[in-house]
C-alpha cells in the first residue's frame, strides 16, 4: 500500500523503510528515548529551592568595592557611565571636603586633597549618587573595564528580578559591597600619612587607631568600631573584601515563598547592604533620572 502511494506520488524516502517487526514498532520507536531517560539522573535544576552557583567569570550583579579600612573605591569619575553602551549607569561625583561632617573644619584647613577630615573615598572626590538601571543593563562588563580604581566589579548574583520598573534601578546603597568584619564604616579620615596612591597600590591593610578614634569621637555607637579597633591593635587579621552572594537555599517547605521573594525584587530586599549617608541621600535625589 505504502509503496503504491510512493509510486503514485514519486516520493522517494531517504532512509530505507522498516519491514516486518520494525515496521510494526515504528510508530512507538520514539518513546525509546523517553523510556531510557527515565532511568538517568535528573539534570534539571530545583530553583529556587536549590541555587546553583554559576561559573566564576559569570557577569552578575555589580558591586562597588571598598578598601580594607572601609573607605569606598569609587571616586565618582563617571567613566563607567560613559563606557556603558546601554546608558544604564548614572553617577554624580562630589568633593569629600563638602561632606556634612567637614562643615565645622576651619576655613583653609581642609582643601580638596587633604587626607584629614571626613572621607567617603581616598583622595578628592567620591561617588555621591550611583545608579544602575537593570532594565537596561546588558551585562557586557565594559563599565568594569573602564573603572580606573577597580571600584566596580561584577558578582555571581543572578537573582535580579522585580515587580516594578523603579525597583530595578539599583542605588548606591544596594550596590556597595557589604562591610567585612574589621572594616570601619565611612565617612572617616584616610589612614594617616597616606595618599590616594597608597590606597590604589594596596598599601592600606586595615583601619588605624587614629581613624578609630576619629569615628569614636563622632559616632560612639558605630557598630563597626570594636572590630576595627581590634584590627588597628593587631589583635585581628586584616579584613578580606566581601561580595554580594546568592541567598541561601530554601528548605522544601519554603520553595514557593522563595520563588515569590525572588520575584519581588529579592536583591533589593537586602536591607543590610544599605551603608553610609551618601547612599541614603543619593536614593532620594535621582531615582527617576535614569529612566529615560
Ligand atoms: S565605579 Fe569606577 S568608573 Fe564608575 S564612577 Fe566609580 S571610579 Fe569611576
TrEMBL record:
NCBIfam families: NuoI, PRK05888.1-3
Catalysed transformations (reactions): a quinone + NADH + 5 H(+)(in) = a quinol + NAD(+) + 4 H(+)(out)
Segments of this protein annotated with the region Disordered: 231-292
Function summary: NDH-1 shuttles electrons from NADH, via FMN and iron-sulfur (Fe-S) centers, to quinones in the respiratory chain. The immediate electron acceptor for the enzyme in this species is believed to be ubiquinone. Couples the redox reaction to proton translocation (for every two electrons transferred, four hydrogen ions are translocated across the cytoplasmic membrane), and thus conserves the redox energy in a proton gradient.
PROSITE patterns per UniProt: 4FE4S_FER_1, 4FE4S_FER_2
Native source species: Myceligenerans indicum
The protein's required cofactors: [4Fe-4S] cluster
Location of the protein in the cell: Cell membrane
InterPro entries membership: 4Fe4S_Fe-S-bd (IPR017896), 4Fe4S_Fe_S_CS (IPR017900), NADH_quinone_OxRdtase_chainI (IPR010226)
EC number(s) stated in the UniProt entry for this protein: 7.1.1.-
Protein family: Belongs to the complex I 23 kDa subunit family.
Annotated cofactor note: Binds 2 [4Fe-4S] clusters per subunit.
Keyword Membrane: yes
Descriptive protein name: NADH-quinone oxidoreductase subunit I
Gene: nuoI
Subunit structure and binding partners: NDH-1 is composed of 14 different subunits. Subunits NuoA, H, J, K, L, M, N constitute the membrane sector of the complex.
Topology versus the membrane: Peripheral membrane protein
Regions of compositional bias (Low complexity) in chain numbering: 249-274
Cross-referenced Pfam families: Fer4_7 (PF12838)
Amino acid at each position: 500500500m505504502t509503496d503504491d502511494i510512493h509510486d503514485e506520488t514519486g516520493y522517494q524516502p531517504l532512509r530505507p523503510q522498516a519491514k516486518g517487526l520494525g515496521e510494526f514498532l515504528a510508530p512507538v520507536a520514539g518513546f525509546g528515548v523517553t523510556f531510557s531517560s527515565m532511568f538517568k539522573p535528573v539534570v534539571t535544576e530545583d530553583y529556587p529551592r536549590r541555587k546553583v552557583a554559576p561559573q566564576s567569570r559569570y557577569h552578575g550583579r555589580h558591586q562597588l568595592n571598598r578598601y580594607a579600612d572601609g573607605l569606598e573605591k569609587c571616586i565618582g569619575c563617571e567613566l563607567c557611565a560613559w563606557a556603558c553602551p546601554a546608558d544604564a549607569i548614572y553617577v554624580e561625583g562630589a568633593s569629600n571636603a563638602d561632606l556634612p561632617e567637614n562643615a565645622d573644619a576651619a576655613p583653609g584647613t581642609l582643601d580638596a586633597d587633604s587626607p584629614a577630615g571626613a572621607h567617603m573615598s581616598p583622595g578628592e572626590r567620591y561617588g555621591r549618587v550611583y545608579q544602575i538601571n537593570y532594565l537596561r543593563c546588558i551585562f557586557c562588563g565594559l563599565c568594569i573595564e573602564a573603572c580606573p580604581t577597580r571600584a566596580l566589579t561584577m558578582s555571581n548574583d543572578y537573582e535580579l528580578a522585580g515587580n516594578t520598573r523603579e525597583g530595578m534601578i539599583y542605588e548606591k546603597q544596594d550596590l556597595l559591597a557589604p562591610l567585612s568584619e574589621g572594616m570601619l564604616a565611612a565617612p572617616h579620615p584616610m589612614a594617616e600619612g597616606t595618599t590616594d596612591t597608597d590606597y590604589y597600590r594596596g598599601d592600606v591593610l586595615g583601619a588605624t587607631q587614629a581613624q578609630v578614634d576619629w569615628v569614636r569621637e563622632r559616632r560612639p555607637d558605630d557598630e563597626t568600631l570594636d572590630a576595627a579597633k581590634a584590627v588597628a591593635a593587631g589583635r585581628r587579621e586584616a579584613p578580606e573584601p566581601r561580595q554580594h552572594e546568592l541567598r541561601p537555599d530554601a528548605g522544601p517547605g519554603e520553595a514557593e515563598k522563595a520563588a515569590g521573594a525572588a520575584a519581588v525584587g529579592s536583591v533589593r530586599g537586602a536591607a543590610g547592604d544599605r551603608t553610609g549617608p551618601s547612599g541614603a541621600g543619593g536614593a532620594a535625589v535621582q531615582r527617576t533620572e535614569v529612566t529615560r
